[in-house]
């Protein structure tokens, strides 16, 4: 099946998307998916037009409004900075366009609420790039939890560390300006973490949060010192609706042993997920010995089955992050091809739930880590 594709933005993350989409013909899928690169919208048209043509885009336009004028588009892929998500999503929903968008859903909860209002009036199919749901180890852990492999869940710990912004020579950018990013490590990394909490464990009832900015100024393009007003580090203590307690820590200034790790503890054992071991979670019983994961413990989970089948179709890996984005994009294309929603899809409603937690976390942190009830 062929899809007419429109892309907004040609920065770093869009190139990750394109590496997957350009190679769909190599995937061993039950039905062949093909993307026709109809139009790219970029505010840097003169700089990006040559590479866009080499990528195969038929048209390059200088505004999102011009992109929307291309009537035959089957989907729009939004790869723009956070502060542009809301206006582009609102316009796309009004035009009943199917939308695949990078996270987060919006800059803040007010914007997210207006998106949900617009969504109720639209026939748009939608998905956010919460791609860690599609990590094989996460998908398998989802099945294990659905099948009660570790009994009643008591508590969990999640940590997600990067180190890029530890370097003081990294200059100011939109990611380090609250009015354009909506937040720092908590938004950038924490949105993924919160989505995994919702997906694997349950919705958040209340929380306490702490945030800190360690490098308070950075140089702009002119070499002048500019204030950083987003967090480098954040810690959340979450209580879920089902009374599970979760601690979640994120940082963009933590060198060594980087990436994402989850520890989930039940009364019959534990599950450990390490991004550096992406294929399989580790399962412990309450002896506590590591145990072999019986395939029968992963039966009957539609999300897991579908995710693993798409992964199996990738015969040659382009690297884990590109593979995850490819699986997520294929998931959305199959949603369009089959005209139905699949269980576990990280849609805009999931993004709205994440935005509610982000909003509550920043309220808590600004009020001396006071408990905030959602």
TrEMBL record:
Domain Gfo/Idh/MocA-like oxidoreductase N-terminal: 3-125
Residues covered by the GFO/IDH/MocA-like oxidoreductase domain: 139-271
Record protein name field: Predicted dehydrogenase
SUPFAM superfamilies hit by this protein: Glyceraldehyde-3-phosphate dehydrogenase-like, C-terminal domain, NAD(P)-binding Rossmann-fold domains
Keyword entries, A-Z: Oxidoreductase
Family annotation (InterPro entries): Gfo/Idh/MocA-like_OxRdtase_N, Gfo/Idh/MocA_oxidrdct_glycsds, GFO_IDH_MocA-like_dom, NAD(P)-bd_dom_sf
Superkingdom of the source species: Bacteria
Source taxonomy: Bacteria, Bacillati, Bacillota, Clostridia, Halanaerobiales
Pfam families membership: GFO_IDH_MocA, GFO_IDH_MocA_C3
Organism of derivation: Halanaerobium salsuginis
GO molecular function: nucleotide binding; oxidoreductase activity
Keyword Oxidoreductase: yes
Record keyword Oxidoreductase present: yes
């Amino acid at each position: 099946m062929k899809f007419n594709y429109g892309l907004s933005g040609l920065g770093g993350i869009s190139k990750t998307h394109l590496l997957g989409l350009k190679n769909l013909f190599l995937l061993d899928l039950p039905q062949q998916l093909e993307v026709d690169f109809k139009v790219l919208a970029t505010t840097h048209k003169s700089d990006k037009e040559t590479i866009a043509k080499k990528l195969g885009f038929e048209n390059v336009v200088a505004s999102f409004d011009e992109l929307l004028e291309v009537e035959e588009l089957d989907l729009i892929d939004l790869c723009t900075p956070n502060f542009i998500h809301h206006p582009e999503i609102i316009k796309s929903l009004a035009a009943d366009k199917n939308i695949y968008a990078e996270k987060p859903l919006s800059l803040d909860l007010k914007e997210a609420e207006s998106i949900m209002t617009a969504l109720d009036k639209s026939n748009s199919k939608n998905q956010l790039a919460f791609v860690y749901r599609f990590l094989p180890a996460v998908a398998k852990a989802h099945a294990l939890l659905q099948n009660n492999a570790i009994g009643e869940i008591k508590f969990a710990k999640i940590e997600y560390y990067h180190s890029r912004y530890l370097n003081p020579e990294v200059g100011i950018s939109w990611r380090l300006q609250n009015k354009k990013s909506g937040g720092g490590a908590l938004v950038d990394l924490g949105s993924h973490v919160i989505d995994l909490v919702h997906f694997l464990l349950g919705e958040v009832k209340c929380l306490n949060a702490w945030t800190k900015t360690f490098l308070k100024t950075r140089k702009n393009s002119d070499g002048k010192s500019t204030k950083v007003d987003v967090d480098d580090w954040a810690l959340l203590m979450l209580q879920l609706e089902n009374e599970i307690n979760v601690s979640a820590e994120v940082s963009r200034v933590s060198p060594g042993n980087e990436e994402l790790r989850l520890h989930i503890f039940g009364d019959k054992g534990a599950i450990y997920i390490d991004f550096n071991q992406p294929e399989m979670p580790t399962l412990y019983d309450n002896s506590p010995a590591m145990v072999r994961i019986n395939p029968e413990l992963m039966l009957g989970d539609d999300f897991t089955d579908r995710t693993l089948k798409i992964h199996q179709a990738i015969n040659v890996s382009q690297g884990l992050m590109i593979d995850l984005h490819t699986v997520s994009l294929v998931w959305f294309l199959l949603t369009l091809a089959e005209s139905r929603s699949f269980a576990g899809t990280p849609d805009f409603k999931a993004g709205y739930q994440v935005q509610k937690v982000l909003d509550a976390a920043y309220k808590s942190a600004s009020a001396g880590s006071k408990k905030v009830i959602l």
